[in-house]
Amino acid sequence: MQSNTAFYSRRAVQEELRALGAVGDVARERHAKLARTFRERVQSHESSNHGSSQPGDGEGGEVLNEEWRCGLC
Predict the structure, then answer these.
(1) CB-facing half-sphere around the CA of 7: CA atoms within 13 A
(2) pLDDT top residue among 61 and 20
(3) What string of DSSP letters covers 37-66?
(4) Is 32 helix (H, G, I), strand (E, B) or coil?
(5) Residue 69 phi/psi, 5° resolution?
(6) Could you give the CA distance from residue 65 to residue 59 in angstroms, rounded to a whole number?
(7) What rounded mean pLDDT belongs to the chain?
(8) Sign of the C-alpha dihedral, residues 3, 35, 65, 22?
(9) So where are the chain's domains?
């Protein structure tokens, strides 16, 4: 399993790419917002030294992945 930091970083990049490829303004902004949210999570985990925890270990990594789907794509 990957660390939460790696997971959030990967998801941030995915959302940034989706924002770049989005056709509509609403979808573009939604993906950009998700990318910012995941970047904030990366910074939070790095600053609190939680980079070694795993998604699904009670910190909500897997839940976040399900909750933060765009719904427009």
Answers:
(1) 21
(2) 20
(3) HHHHHHHHHHHTT-TT--TTSSS-HHHHHH
(4) helix
(5) -85, 145
(6) 12
(7) 78
(8) negative
(9) 4-67
Burial class (CB in 10 A: 0-12, 13-18, 19+), 68: middle
- What percent of the chain is modeled with pLDDT above 70? 66
- Return the minimum-mean-pLDDT range out of 29-33, 34-38, 58-62, 68-72: 58-62
What is the separation, in whole angstroms, between the first and last Cα of the chain?
A: 27
Q: What is the pTM of this model?
A: 0.65
CB 2 within 8 Å of CB 55? yes
Distance CA 9, CA 39 (A): 7
- Tens of pLDDT along 47-72? 886 445 444 444 444 444 445 556 65
Residue among 18, 14, 63 nearest 6 (CA): 14
